[in-house]
């Protein structure tokens, strides 16, 4: 990521304790607030990841757990899915959803920080992350991606779905950044230079889906660990 571009990305100033409290309070209504509008983009990323039977997959920032169901179905009875999320409230909702789907035996969830993953090196075939990386402050994004690289086995893959910063900074992007900078408690994510961040972390970018949500650019990037 070029220095000029990195400086131009808005910062995330709220603490992780504040973020946890916010998502705990929203956990029961999150699907109503944002889940439906985000789902088609998350589904595109899940399709891009193409979970296969027998694989071990980690999701960072699983939220209410809708994507965990898709991933667990993809890896089948011989595979496993693990998930980590900052919010205990989200964990409770996701765990209930996984249990109702009868997938509890192949899904293991915990509360934790994506910048300090509590997993051994080379633990997973793939990592999935959607609308999560842009919640981290700019200096922490490389740390999160380095942790992803550490826990993915050689040749394994990552898919990240995120709001994408655009060089031309159209009207919707400018309005969204203003909302983020003015009402960060409620608009806590912001667009980032996703492809550049993944490339700078040492991944080999394989495929990029360019999408739009409410006029805002969204990218889903598939990359591999060399």
What do these coordinates show?
The protein is of the alpha/beta class and 226 residues long. It has one domain (3-224): Vaccinia Virus protein VP39 (Rossmann fold). It is built from eight helices and seven strands. The protein has helices at 3-8, 16-26, 30-49, 66-75, 88-100, 141-151, 171-182, 194-200, and strands at residues 56-60, 80-85, 107-111, 124-130, 152-163, 204-213, 216-224. β2 (80-85), α5 (88-100) and β3 (107-111) form a beta-alpha-beta unit. The model is unreliable at 1-7 (pLDDT under 50).
Total individual domains: 1
Terminal residue distance: 19 Å
CATH architecture: 3-Layer(aba) Sandwich
Biggest β-sheet description? 7 strands, mixed
Shape descriptor: globular
What order do the helices and strands follow? HHHEHEHEEHEHHEE
Radius of gyration, in Å, reads 16 Å
Low-confidence stretches: 1-7
Structural class by helix and strand composition: alpha/beta
The CATH first-level class comes to Alpha Beta
List the total number of helices: 8
Question: What percent strand?
Answer: 15-25%
Mean pLDDT: 90
Helicity level: 25-40%
CATH superfamily: Vaccinia Virus protein VP39
- State the strand order across the main sheet: 3-2-1-4-5-7-6
DSSP strand count: 7
CATH topology: Rossmann fold
